[in-house]
Amino acid sequence: MNTKLFSKKSFALLFAGIFTAASVHTFVNTSVQAQNNPKPPEFTKFQDASQLKLPGNGKPFIPNGLGSSEKANGERGIPDGVDDRIPMTSNQYPWSTIGKVQGTTADAKSYHCTGTLIYDNLVLTNSHCVLDPETGVLSKKIEFMPNFINGRVSNPRDIASVQRVIYGTDFKNGFQDNSKDWAILVLDKPLGRKYGYLGWKSLPTSTLTRNPKKFFFVGYSKDFPKSNPGMTAGFEAGCSITSEEANLLLHDCDTAGGSSGGAIIATIDDQYYIVAINNMEFKNRRTGQDIINSAVKIDFLDRLFSQN
């Protein structure tokens, strides 16, 4: 795939109506029930978080006794070379750090996204996974289900309620704010001590594009697996970040609704780091064909955690 997929002019046409940008966020039903009835999360927009103190230094963490494996297990979902995902059924690190973000909107609709532990009680996902990007209305309930496989977590007591949300945008500027489509969820349980957490590195786009087919992606897509969609994450090894346009990274990892917030992961010095967060897919409005997907750069994490 070419590393320069769109000129700035052609990319701008995506937002002018020739193509439709489809948010990878989906409303679904789930069999997992809350363990309690928590209060709605507190929400803090990034611009108002100057006094907020969050722990974390961008370094990965593997708990003692938790195994590590590069393999995510599972068999190829569609063995024709088009869909490269397999079911993510491993409970070992780093895949243990990834989970399902389950939300409830103000009008009681259920939806899900994908999130990744980046500290004991902190999960990284998208802004549009905590609020409605069309109305700006905040979700009234959000939970994180770590290492969610086949519709369940290994221990139901590990389902965490989100107490606080720090988010990058409320989308008042529409598509202009997609580069700020991130959120950090503060959990009521230190799940990272048990499941581990990933580090992050904000790398130059040139470095990312010079390493094709070197990235991993995991997301709870609504179309995967076919037998029980959204109940096990899809895993892909060997996808690429192809270019940068309008302050978003373009990538070819296989995604669909529900994989919003999923981490694009690189191995650096034999450790696992988040280098971007999946947030949108672009489709041809006439044919419905996927064109390319986009991801949020994570340099905001350096700014946010530098306040410590």
Automatic annotation (TrEMBL):
InterPro entries attached to this UniProt entry: Glutamyl_endopeptidase, Peptidase_S1_PA, Peptidase_S1_PA_chymotrypsin
Pfam families cross-referenced by the UniProt entry: Trypsin_2 (PF13365)
Signal peptide: 1-21
Protein name: Serine protease
Region (Disordered): 57-86
UniProt keyword list: Signal
Biased composition (Basic and acidic residues): 72-86
Domain of life of the organism encoding this protein: Bacteria
